[in-house]
Amino acid sequence: MAGSQPVSPLAPKAFPDLPEIAGAEFAAIEAGVRYSGRTDVMLARLAPGSTVAGVFTRSSTRAAPVLDCEAKLASAAAPEAGAAILVNSGNANAFTGAAGEGAVEAICAAVAETAGVPAERVFTSSTGVIGERLPHDRITAQLEKLVAGLSGGAVARAAQAIMTTDTYPKGAGAVIETSAGEIRLAGIAKGSGMIAPDMATMLVYVFTDAAVPQPLLQQALSSLTETSFNAITVDGDTSTSDTLLLAATGQGPVQIDDLESDAGSAFVEALRAVMLDLAHQVVRDGEGASKFLEIRVTGATSDADAKTVAMAIANSPLVKTAIAGEDPNWGRVVMAVGKSGAPADRDRLAIRFGDILVAEKGWVAESYTEEAGAAYMKQPELLLSVDLGLGSGAFTAWTCDLTHAYISINADYRS
Question: How far apart are CA 288 and CA 405, in angstroms?
Answer without folding.
Answer: 5
